[in-house]
What we know:
heterodimer; A: alpha/beta; Rossmann fold; six-stranded mixed β-sheet; four-stranded antiparallel β-sheet; 39% helix; globular; B: alpha/beta; twelve-stranded mixed β-sheet; 24 strands; 34% strand
Amino acid sequence: xxxxxxxxxxxxxxxxxxxxxxxxxxxxxxxxxxxxxxxxxxxxxxxxxxxxxxxxxxxxxxxxxxxxxxxxxxxxxxxxxxxxxxxxxxxxxxxxxxxxxxxxxxxxxxxxxxxxxxxxxxxxxxxxxxxxxxxxxxxxxxxxxxxxxxxxxxxxxxxxxxxxxxxxxxxxxxxxxxxxxxxxxxxxxxxxxxxxxxxxxxxxxxxxxxxxxxxxxxxxxxxxxxxxxxxxxxxxxxxxxxxxxxxxxxxxxx
Amino acid sequence: xxxxxxxxxxxxxxxxxxxxxxxxxxxxxxxxxxxxxxxxxxxxxxxxxxxxxxxxxxxxxxxxxxxxxxxxxxxxxxxxxxxxxxxxxxxxxxxxxxxxxxxxxxxxxxxxxxxxxxxxxxxxxxxxxxxxxxxxxxxxxxxxxxxxxxxxxxxxxxxxxxxxxxxxxxxxxxxxxxxxxxxxxxxxxxxxxxxxxxxxxxxxxxxxxxxxxxxxxxxxxxxxxxxxxxxxxxxxxxxxxxxxxxxxxxxxxxxxxxxxxxxxxxxxxxxxxxxxxxxxxxxxxxxxxxxxxxxxxxxxxxxxxxxxxxxxxxxxxxxxxxxxxxxxxxxxxxxxxxxxxxxxxxxxxxxxxxxxxxxxxxxxxxxxxxxxxxxxxxxxxxxxxxxxxxxxxxxxxxxxxxxxxxxxxxxxxxxxxxxxxxxxxxxxxxxxxxxxxxxxxxxxxxxxxxxxxxxxxxxxxxxxxxxxxxxxxxx
Lengths: 254, 475
């Protein structure tokens, strides 16, 4: 692959006329794992949802390019079929629609053709096994009555089946106990390869102990205020966000 | 090992048919008998004469006609604009009710072929078939083994001729001639419909089916159905309804009476897909005795206006009634549908589960009644009605009524009205599904609790019809 997978260029995002992301730039190449950390309200989920084209968020400036082309004019389904994936922080339930039916349609949409039943079953069973999920899980309705942990596993299951080129994982670690966290992390590691990229959005370091990122960024008040390697995450874990936020505030007032 | 679940293959192909209404064809056949338009004692007498009916039926018809004239139009429900003088009340296509499909006149066979009806019977999916074309049943057949067990399945006209005693004992006992204006009209001019008697302990394992087809312009179809399920028997009856599209409106005003004796289990499924110029004003009522189970499964897709509230009167302890319904209205349509459960005995139970879809300016109303009489202790009733709107032009209302005259009962009621949600659409679209596919999936999911109650073939058909209705607006 020549050129980066994802280029975010001075991106500005508003929700209902309130600016949330205020000029954010980030480049992710194939094979890279980036962690985006930050306190609540810093704009992490706004960024994640905007990258997939959620209609509630308005891009007021800047650009987002995927594999070289701007995607800002594309609908969510078009972005998905190009190879973007968002594991959501709060996945929505779709009552009456079984996981097994939904997953097959999603895989077929991603491939651009109907996936044969036999092949589908094979892949599904394989990924289910990897995530230590029982097949009865996919008989249930999409996210309907799922516990927090089940929802996150379901998102990770989709990651494995859809095999996107760029995966954005929005707080996939929140609400998981230690065993579930390890399984979900293994699912992400299984996916990780030289040909795809991952943006891990998280509040805490603990997921990063399992999925070691190549780069760590700190988001505060809609901007990346510091970037570094894994040691930055360790420092945040030890000191919390306050020292960085104070420094940013001083810089702004100076 | 994961296996593929039941899927509805037609739904996976977007844009199968683009026509709003696929059964909108009509044939130009000349009717054998077609009474002039208008309603009078003379017309009623002529119908009774043509059918060679006993005197008591003629008198009952004439009395019902008086009730019809005496009663005002209902001032609730939908807007009814019917010119009763501009309707043909009786149209006879053929002079025989055939028992062999080969003997049915060619042009009628053609019509039913287009509707795909003989196929299901050939495949052995049904225990019996009846077909009504305009006013009268033109074909009926029942599996031999059921006939030998004493199951009766014939046109209501024929039943009156051949089984007058049992007919007279039950006819009009559940829905009297003066019940409401349209039941009175039906009782005055009824023709056709199905008569079913299932003897004690006989369980009919696959459905009996009837098809109702209006072919004549400005036609009124007034079939009358009577089902008697004797003690411990079981029966599933399915009806499907279609009509051509004409420039002027037609009227379908049926009456269905069902008697579920002790321990009987009756399921009555309707998949109604009238064209959008049909007024569908139907009275359906069942009585359920000790430990009997009565279930109405009602799918209302077509028509200009439907007013239909299937009822179960729970007469003795242990009786159970259910109404499971889907109504879907697109532009220019109003589905005013619901259910009625009357608990007249202790320890009776009922379930109402209604799903309605309003599409492209369509209007749906849920109108329901749960009544529990004083002394009917230990009754349980669970009502759930959900409405889904696909756009801002559409409208949905809920009119639930509860009349509870007994303290020791357990009643739950839950109603939701929602729009196809932004979050659901975003979730599905972010997985690569287009907006159309996503909307259809959400709608399929919404009606799934009712769809899964239908036999497989009907589930596929029902999903396809809902799909077609959505194609018209979002396709």
